[in-house]
Amino acid sequence: MTEIELKVALDAKRLDLYVAENTEFSRSHVKKLIDGGSVTVNNKAVKSSYQLKAGDVVHIVAAEPEKIDLTPQDLPLDVIYQDEDIAVINKAQGVTVHAGGGTKSGTLVNALMFHLDSLSGINGVIRPGIVHRIDKDTSGLLVVAKNDAAHLSLAKQIQQKTCKREYLALLEGVVKADNGHIATLIGRNPKDRKLMAVTKTGRVATTDYEVVKRYKDYTLCKFSLGTGRTHQIRVHAKYIGHPVVGDKAYGIKKQRFDLKGQLLHAYRLTLTHPKTGETMVFEAPIPDYFKNVLDVLSNRGDRLV
Question: In whole angstroms, how far apart are CA 7 and each of 146, 190, 303?
Answer without folding.
Answer: 17, 31, 51
